[in-house]
């Protein structure tokens, strides 16, 4: 069974960035306003994320890494909202099967922080011979998750990584996406041992400031705000997209559906089509879009490694969004 778990986990978490995405979502879900990411060797040696959110109850630590039995699933309503996000209590469990996982956490009510180590879904001792029970330590409110030696027990996967720099770039890209989307949350990301942050966004920064800091003024100065919604298809969208004065060689699409960063080839195609009549040949836009869709209409049954998402009335929804962008582009153009 551990072999099966290991294989399943290795399909959900294919690269360090996939672990990071899950850890960011958990930290944001916990109501954090500050998120610090530390990376060693492209996340393969270590990936650590420290938040100031609600923390985890000591009593929940024992089952934290057991599949599908997370503390969050306490009411029936929660089940449908969890289903939206695709993983349903599998992230930490998966990570514990392919890495050494350490969790240090403190709730507001607790007088101490608790530290627990995990392996293969279960509490594990920090060192052989020690107790596996969570240990009381000093700490601030919030949670720190440390993932070490990712794929230490999956040598074929570990050998597939070409460079730490590539993995770090993917991490910075993903952290940057969430840093733009999660207003009210401060983000930092740095390599272990380096003095300066590669990414640093203040909690109070506006969305335009966030885009400016991550993608530069050239983009930020040419943004138009767009909104679209239609009750018939159960969605609303808002975002910031570049106008007809701006273009780059490749489309940058930051797409969030129900606050999860996803990919959608059909959406990208539709948007490129819309822009093609406003931009010179070979020119492409920067697009940040956040969609909220009735969770019952989002298909979560796609393979986790394909991050591609589908939802009901996709074509109709794309049409409404593209129409709204077209109207704005035409205004600025005139
Ligand atoms: P899911 O997020 O789908 O429930 P995860 O394995 O990602 O599954 O997380 C399991 C549970 O652990 C979460 O539901 C949450 O209760 C708790 N948890 C994980 N990370 C954090 C965090 N940073 N702060 C507070 N609680 C957390
Ligand atoms: Mg999660």
Explain this structure to me?
With 334 residues, the chain is an alpha+beta fold. 33% of the residues lie in helices and 25% in strands. It has ten helices and 16 strands. It has helices spanning 2-12, 16-29, 76-84, 91-98, 155-159, 164-181, 207-215, 217-220, 265-276, 314-333; strands at 34-40, 46-51, 100-106, 113-119, 122-124, 135-137, 142-148, 186-191, 199-201, 223-230, 235-242, 252-257, 260-261, 286-293, 298-299, 310-311. Strands 1, 2, 3, 4, 5, 6, 7, 8 and 9 form a nine-stranded mixed β-sheet that branches. Strands 10-11-14-12-13 form a five-stranded mixed β-sheet, sandwiched between helices. Strands 15-16 form a two-stranded antiparallel ribbon. α2 runs parallel beside α6 (164-181) and α6 (164-181) packs antiparallel against α7. It binds adenosine-5'-diphosphate and magnesium ion. Magnesium ion binds next to α2.
Structural domain count: 2
Strand-pairing-aware structural class: alpha+beta
CATH topology of the largest domain: Heat Shock Protein 90
CATH architecture of the largest domain: 2-Layer Sandwich
CATH class of the largest domain: Alpha Beta
**Could you estimate the helical fraction of the residues in percent?**
25-40%
Strand count, sense and barrel status of the largest sheet are:
9 strands, mixed
Helix tally equals 10
List the helices and strands and how they pair.
Blueprint: H1 2-12, H2 16-29, E1 34-40, E2 46-51, H3 76-84, H4 91-98, E3 100-106, E4 113-119, E5 122-124, E6 135-137, E7 142-148, H5 155-159, H6 164-181, E8 186-191, E9 199-201, H7 207-215, H8 217-220, E10 223-230, E11 235-242, E12 252-257, E13 260-261, H9 265-276, E14 286-293, E15 298-299, E16 310-311, H10 314-333
């Amino acid at each position: 069974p551990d072999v099966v778990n290991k294989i399943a986990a290795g399909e959900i978490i294919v690269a360090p960035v996939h672990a990071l995405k899950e850890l960011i979502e958990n930290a944001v879900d916990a109501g954090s306003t500050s998120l610090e990411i530390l990376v060693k060797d492209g996340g393969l040696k270590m990936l650590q994320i420290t938040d100031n959110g609600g923390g985890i109850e000591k009593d929940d630590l024992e089952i934290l890494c057991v599949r599908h039995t997370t503390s969050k699933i306490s009411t029936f309503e929660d089940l449908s909202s969890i289903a939206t996000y695709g993983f349903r209590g599998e992230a930490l469990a998966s990570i514990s099967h392919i890495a050494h996982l350490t969790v240090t956490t403190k709730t507001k009510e607790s007088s101490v922080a608790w530290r627990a180590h995990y392996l293969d879904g279960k509490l594990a001792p920090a060192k052989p011979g020690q107790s596996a029970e969570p240990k009381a330590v000093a700490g601030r409110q919030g949670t720190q998750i440390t993932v070490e030696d990712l794929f230490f027990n999956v040598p074929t996967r570990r050998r597939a990584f070409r460079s730490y720099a590539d993995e770090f770039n993917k991490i910075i890209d993903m952290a940057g996406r969430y840093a733009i989307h999660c207003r009210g949350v401060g983000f930092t990301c740095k390599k272990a041992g380096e003095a300066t942050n590669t990414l640093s966004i203040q909690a109070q920064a506006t969305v335009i400031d966030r885009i400016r800091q991550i993608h530069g003024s050239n983009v930020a100065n040419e943004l138009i705000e767009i909104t679209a919604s239609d009750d018939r298809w159960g969605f609303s969208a808002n975002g910031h997209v570049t106008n007809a004065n701006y273009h780059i060689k490749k489309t940058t699409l930051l797409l969030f559906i129900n606050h999860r960063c996803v990919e959608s080839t059909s959406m990208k195609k539709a948007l490129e089509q819309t822009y093609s009549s406003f931009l010179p040949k070979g020119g492409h836009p920067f697009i940040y879009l956040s969609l909220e869709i009735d969770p019952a209409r989002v298909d979560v049954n796609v393979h986790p490694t394909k991050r591609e998402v589908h939802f009901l009335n996709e074509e109709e929804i794309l049409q409404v969004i593209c129409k709204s962008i077209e109207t704005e582009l035409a205004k600025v153009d005139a």
